[in-house]
Amino acid sequence: MSTIEFIGLTKQYKDLKAVDNLTAKVEAGRITGFLGPNGAGKSTSLRCLLGLATASSGEALIEGKPYHQLAEPLKRVGAVLDSQGFNAALTAKQNLLVICAAAGIDDSRVLPLLELVELGHAVNKRTKGYSLGMKQRLALAAALLGDPDILVLDEPANGLDPIGIAWLREFLRNLANQGKTILVSSHQLAELQHTVDDVIIVNHGKLIAAGNAKEIMAGQSLEEAFLRLIGVAA
Predict the structure, then answer these.
(1) Which of 111, 127, 139, 234 is the most exposed place for a label (fewest CB within 10 A)?
(2) Mean pLDDT of 49-56
(3) What is the per-residue pLDDT across 112-159, written as a single tens digit (0 to 9) for each?
(4) Domains in the chain, number
(5) Are the C-beta atoms of residues 218 and 211 closer than 8 Å to each other?
(6) Domain assignment of residue 234, yes or no
(7) Cβ atoms within 10 A of the Cβ of 233, count?
């Protein structure tokens, strides 16, 4: 079953076509890497998927519906698009409690999730004192508050050190092993090679390749296959 589907998705900004007739599927219970150079249209596609931008044509669907038609969307889809959206004057715990109150989520999930993302030592620290890596972990906790089956992550490794990146790999795999579907956009190709089951590769807003990661790599590293497919000499 496809939990996420882009169907002819196009997004035009004046003279720039950020996404150009993108059609691709994300299968349930798998980790799919969404890959492409800067400006390839990845973030715009994710924003259309989550109802933060309106497609010029085509559709981006979650379980067959646009995001705004989902009942209790935070309990269906967790997203990390920007780790800077927290109230800097509030603690990590307070920020997550605000989200719970707004979304009707049981606030008993807050402390266990902060422990899960290894922020248990900083639950009562104001987020203005958080490093970028800590904010990324907090954003992951926020995405998981509603215990969603689907996660959409844009550059979740941004700001993480090598230990944090290794932690993220194991964290995402554990979630997938629980049956969650994960779509992750990232430039960390060497790391994603050890994480993803499938890939969607875009360039200049257009689909270049999609499918099983091992088949697309065809014996190469993910970075080598990516450069080959987008027409850059390795």
Answers:
(1) 234
(2) 96
(3) 999 999 999 999 999 999 998 999 999 999 999 999 999 999 999 888
(4) 1
(5) no
(6) no
(7) 5
Q: What is the DSSP string of the chain?
A: -EEEEEEEEEEEETTEEEEEEEEEEEETTSEEEEE--TTSSHHHHHHHHTTSS--SEEEEEETTB-GGGSSSGGGTEEEES-TT-S-TTSBHHHHHHHHHHHHT--GGGHHHHHHHTT-GGGTTSBGGG--HHHHHHHHHHHHTTT--SEEEEESTTTT--HHHHHHHHHHHHHHHHTT-EEEEE-S-HHHHTTT-SEEEEEETTEEEEEEEHHHHHTTS-HHHHHHHHTT---
Could you tell me the residue range of the domain that residue 53 belongs to? 2-229
Inter-residue contact 48 to 55 (CB < 8 Å) = yes
pLDDT tens track for 2-20: 589 999 999 999 889 999 9
The CATH number of whichever domain residue 217 belongs to comes to 3.40.50.300
**What's the angle, vertex CA 200, arms to CA 199 and CA 201, rounded to 5?**
110
What does the pLDDT read at residue 66? 96
Query: Whole-prediction pTM value?
Result: 0.92
